[in-house]
């Protein structure tokens, strides 16, 4: 399985350990992993011009960074994994910048989906969506993070999604079975 692993530009020892452990776990199971370390200083922020919806459907008008290339890789992967430090219950700045620039992968219209109003899918399928949040944060922040990741999945509508939170690399190893199960075809 081709997995796109998106991580924030994180210099903490815990963040580096977790992203390396995720990559090792996936590769040991025979998955092809492409890791991209996002840097919100290089990935320009979304300017909310809606050009990716109206002027160049499916492509951001900002072309002097890697957002369009990453969005293309995202749609063509079998699974996408986001690894983010939990920041006040939300994503890190780097992951948030990527998510904002991923707007091009959904349609501008609104439809009723599971009794709620959401944007329809631009493409016939979206890769499996797995989010790993980490950090020594409160249980309330972990719950908020998990809910946020699941709400993002509702907009993208992958066949399967999973959100987990961990405090350390040791906890990640305990969650590895859940992550690998989410990647199993047909589960």
Short précis:
With 187 residues, this protein is α/β, with parallel strands linked by helices. It is 39% helix and 21% strand.
Provide an overview of this structure.
The chain has a single domain (2-160), classed as Flavodoxin domain (Rossmann fold), CATH 3.40.50. Helix content is 39%, strand content 21%. It has helices spanning 13-28, 51-54, 67-76, 93-101, 139-156, 169-183, and strands at 2-8, 32-38, 79-85, 111-113, 116-118, 128-134, 161-166. The strands form 2 sheets. It has a 5-stranded parallel sheet, sandwiched between helices. It has a two-stranded antiparallel sheet with strand order 4-5. It is globular.
Which secondary structure elements does this structure contain, and how are they paired or packed?
Layout: E1 2-8, H1 13-28, E2 32-38, H2 51-54, H3 67-76, E3 79-85, H4 93-101, E4 111-113, E5 116-118, E6 128-134, H5 139-156, E7 161-166, H6 169-183
Parallel strand pairs: 1-2, 1-3, 3-6, 6-7
Antiparallel strand pairs: 4-5
Descriptive tags:
5-stranded parallel sheet, about 190 residues, alpha/beta, two-stranded antiparallel ribbon
CATH superfamily: Flavodoxin domain
Total number of beta strands: 7
User: Mind telling me which CATH architecture this is?
Assistant: 3-Layer(aba) Sandwich
Based on secondary structure, the structural category is alpha/beta
Cα shape: globular
Percent of residues in beta strands? 15-25%
* Radius of gyration (Å): 16 Å
Largest sheet: 5 strands, parallel
Biggest sheet strand line-up: 2-1-3-6-7
